[in-house]
Amino acid sequence: MNPTLNTMLPKPLRALRLERLRLSPRYWVVAGQATVSATSFLTNIFIARLCGLATFGEYSAWQLVLLLLLAVQGAVITQPMQVVVGALPATRRAAYQQLLLALQLIFSLLAVAGVVAGARLLPQAAAVLPAFVVLLAATGGQDTLRKLLLADGKVQAALASDVLSAGGQLLVLLALALGPQPATLAQVMWAVGLTTVPALLLGGRVLGAWPSLRGLRRFGRRHWRQARWLLPTSLLQWGSANVLLVFAGWAGSPAMLGVLRLAQTAMGIFNLGLQAVENYALPRLSQSFYQAPQLFGKQRAALARKMLLAAVPVLALLALAAGPLVARFGPAGGSQYADLLRWCCLLYVVILLVYPLRLTIRLQADSRHYFVGYVLSIVASLLSVRWLTGHYQASGVVLGWLLAQLVLGGYWALALRRTAPVVR
């Protein structure tokens, strides 16, 4: 066929359809995080509604341990990576990935050993311990792999692993829900842990890297410079949310604690959405931060506008529908806590406004301000929580979180005014 004539022919219909499927990477990232968020939400609702509040409370206790270990893992491995990788040449990133996988393997072994040792003090934990160990190892490995895939630009593979894990998990939980007997806590944990394994294998195959410590001398110092303040900060972040929750359960009623946990579950969708933005945007913002500060300021402002436009309408609708939602999904007699969900909506508007400051602080060469900000915010919330809960009951806990965010944003703004006037 004449080449000139061939170029004049219209493209095949199949090619046109494929072109339409070439979405921007950020949409794949949002889709993946939405999958994770929806699965987490449905799992918690499943346990609370079908297994009873007692089982839900036990699951929440184990979940707090898991979240603590994931926070430490993120501070030691993936959060420093999101900053360091943007400053590395492409030729060195494969060796850096191998080092991160080796660190992940070491961390998983230490975490499992620590949990097993701690469980010896609680004889009642023996029935659940094997399932939780599998859940911990699989979830930790999957979390690191998907963040490495996102940083490497393999966003579709990250989405595929999320869908594979979520689909299997929901199918198994549905089978348990249709069973003749109520699901036990161990069964739920086995379902969540084992259905994560296929996603873990898929992510490892796509990444194509094997654990190796050979890059420790080359990258270790730069990685640790970021991690040294992130580690204590991650412990403070975990404590800031959960210490207030424990205080509310101790000082209040089981209904108050139940509503707070369910409110956390609902608002956790926004937490995971923010984490998706950070996982995808931070490695890319780090390049302009170091090479073109003026461009970084424009990119950060554009990102903040998109986040507000996407989230504020949803938060407004959630606040308006708070009464029916709490009555439908909350525990019996919990409808009076609708104001708590409305305060949560306001809290996340403030979080969205503070988030651009968080991203900029994360990109600083020294993470000291990131750490100090959380220290001040936790001190403020702990000092005020007794008065707030005494006057506003469960809503007082959310007001304590709100105060913490205001302190956090104020300190970070002052710190950036002194250290990074170009991009503040």
UniProtKB/TrEMBL annotation:
TM annotation in the entry: 27-47, 59-78, 99-119, 125-145, 157-179, 185-208, 229-250, 256-274, 308-328, 340-357, 369-388, 394-414
The protein's name in its UniProt record: O-antigen/teichoic acid export membrane protein
PANTHER family for the chain: O-ANTIGEN TRANSPORTER-RELATED, PST FAMILY PREDICTED COLANIC ACID TRANSPORTER
Topology with respect to the bilayer: Multi-pass membrane protein
Assigned keywords, A-Z: Cell membrane, Membrane, Transmembrane, Transmembrane helix
Record carries keyword Cell membrane: yes
Organism annotation: Hymenobacter artigasi
Keyword NAD (UniProt): no
